[in-house]
Amino acid sequence: MKAAVWHGVKDVRVEDVALKPAKSDEVVVRVAYAGICGSDLHEYLEGPVFIPVDAPDTLTGGQAPLTMGHEFSGVIEKVGADVTKFKVGDHVSINPTVTKGISPDNLDVYDGYSFIGLSTDGGFTSFVNVPEENLYHLPEDFSLKLAATIEPTAVAVQAVKEGDLRFGEKVVIFGAGPIGVLVAAAAKAAGATKIVAVDLSEIRLKKALEMGATDVINPSQVPDAIAAIKEIIPGGADVSFEVAGVQPTFEQAIDATRPRGSVVIVSIFAKPISFDPMQLMNAGVKLTTTIAYSKETFQQTVDLVSSGQIDVQPVITDTIELDNIVNDGFEALTRDKSQAKILIDLNQA
Questions:
Q1: Which of 89, 98, 239, 252 has a CA positioned 20 to 30 A from the CA of residue 163?
Q2: What is the value of pTM for the model shown?
């Protein structure tokens, strides 16, 4: 079968691979659709970031070269002898996080984690082995194409939960890339009454409006972005989300937040930044972070997306074939700001 295999920086090859024997607690998933994540793009442009190259990953035993892809949906093709909750033909979403499973669910991911598709073979291929504990049932009448967006949506839902967003509150989102616009959709579902998206790209701001933002601001078109935010939200946001991953937006997120409000860092920063802690203390702003999601959040996201309470359709901007993943996928995301979520259609692969 064909797979998109990471070998190094700007070296992803579509090549023939053999499916490894499944373990007794695993199922074989026939992949329907898989999405290209921002972390996949980081691996392509500047990796290894998560992909183990010098020694096998301690949680999964995986090591490069490996098949990428951790945002995917599919249908169960085969079940292992010890699998009890799933059967052949079930439609499934995959939670790709692999953890030690020792700590409580809300702490588990912070005790050490790996990813299917970043630490071991993933979903940019026709068939993949997935542990039973990483599977979530989908309604059979729900689109497997839309289901491929559940994983990044879970990141957004977890971010909203980390911000302790309440009904009627107001938010600002710095960065209107794929995760940023999904945060807008999740904030809308959580009852936010003002959702302000901030980005330098007019195309991305338009997408944010499609996904749930009530207002947008392009800092290049206003004298003072913070003043513009506070014209919309007097006193500042209850919760601000930093989803751009650069120092200016980190500082702006603090300045845009009301006293005792919260800033949630959602971005994976490509390099360290510096900041003055007094900026937080003088503003009385609380700072928190989020990575991935809990198992509870992933199930909640499956329910929110499959019931239509979070509309993910607008985030999908292109569907491509596996053979074209480098040029029409990774390179397109690098050069074309109109792209949000690009899916690979693996039904014919």
A1: 98
A2: 0.97
